[in-house]
Amino acid sequence: MAKKYAFFLGCIMPNRYPGVEASTRYLMTRYGIELLDMKGASCCPAPGVFGSFDLYTWIVIAARNLCIAESLGADIVTCCNGCYGSLQEANHLLKENKELREWVNEILKNIDKEFKGTIEVKHVIEVIEHDIGLNRIRSEIERDLSGLKVAAHYGCHFLKPREVRRHEHPERPTILDRIIETTNAISIDYRDKLMCCGAGGGVRAGSIDVSLDMTREKVQNMMRAGADCLTTPCVFCHLQFDRGQKEIEDRMGVKLGLPVVFITQLIMLALGASPHVLGLQYNIIPVRPLLRKIGL
Amino acid sequence: MSASEQVIQLEKTDPKFVEEIIEYGSKIFGREHMETITACFQCGTCSGSCPSGRRTAYRTRLVMRKALLGLKDEVLSSEELWYCTTCYTCYERCPRGVRTTDIIRVIRNIAAKSGRMKEQHKRVARLLIRFGHAVPITDEFKEIRKALGLSELPPTVHSYPEALDEVRKLIKIMKFDQMVGYQESG
Description:
The complex is a heterodimer.
Chain A: E1 4-8, H1 12-15, H2 18-30, E2 34-37, H3 50-53, H4 55-72, E3 76-78, H5 81-96, H6 98-108, E4 121-123, H7 124-132, H8 134-138, E5 149-152, H9 162-165, H10 175-182, E6 186-187, H11 203-206, H12 208-224, E7 229-232, H13 235-252, E8 260-262, H14 263-270, H15 288-293
Parallel strand pairs in A: 1-2, 1-3, 3-4, 5-6, 5-7, 7-8
Helix pairs in contact in A: 2-14, 4-5, 5-6, 12-13
Chain B: H1 3-6, H2 17-29, H3 31-35, H4 45-49, H5 60-69, H6 72-77, H7 89-93, H8 100-113, H9 119-131, H10 139-147, H11 161-173, H12 176-179
Helix pairs in contact in B: 2-8
């Protein structure tokens, strides 16, 4: 039976990086994974932003989104560590804590919804690894990315907190590097590879210079190690790196220019898709140097 | 800072502050999770791991210490409290199992509830109430969506006004709209 997922879009992917949405839809369709629309879903809401303002409002709105997927009878998949962080954590807390669940359900009654705890929340990385499989992708590579140096950026909320996420060790993860190397590109080592992009926790909205200083440091570390591009599985990190590099130039006068490619875009490039179809032309930092490097 | 300012005056502390933090977060995370704050032995692994602390005066260890001492006003009114990106590096590395990041989020909740929310943050919160998305669509991105063969509007609250009404209803019940100064006309 074909695998189905409730596709949680969030805010940034559909509203700022639709190319990431298109690429993810192409990849899933190619491997027979059906993505169901979560009609009427809202912002997740962002765990470090709304979770910092009012955890109680945060969990109520997150629970509403979870209910939409429950009514579809499908696990959620997301392309944003923030959405994943919010929904996976809220789902975990509500399943584990009966009193909290009852309190939330009392409020959800007002909109005729009830959290039942019948689904799981997955990150697109998990779907690539477990439902598609790296060997399957490897056997279908059509474009040679060998020699391309990619800086992997995991982002924080995919892996942490480990006691809730239950993936690899957050200080020594390998999955993103393994996916990158499936495309024959090289996943390079660089200083502070697991450092935050700087966007989370409301720091981007509230203290943009602090936020961008982290982004600057990280991109410079990647460039010093010879990266041709950076790849992330989180569309919020993606925005922070792409849009952020322009902001760094405008506010600090530091010109960087490292192309940013989402993991599903990188895979689709290796599978032979046209960069135009993947929406790479809409990135703020031009991807031309990267495309030239792979002979396009 | 003069020597007299460095003296902690007991009458200016709030010994109930730690209990307030534990109590506030318990319903969400469970009491045991929140009580880890009392296990902090000030080793500084958190501050040493912090990407914000590298470039600002934000010190996670100091927040924990001040909270434990009951220096409520100092903790709640500090600008640095809002420099944590919630990256969880300190949380993972803490040798005492203090759930730092969640404790920081709870302290921020208490700060926000006492009227110390930044205007920029209120603005983001009002976007959620107005559009159902903290980052709503624009005309430019509607065009890009169409050019990529996607629906002009995503199938979210953007396409279903009745769904946005649901989100707003929940937000009103939680009185979150009042907290962030949202007015229906605006």
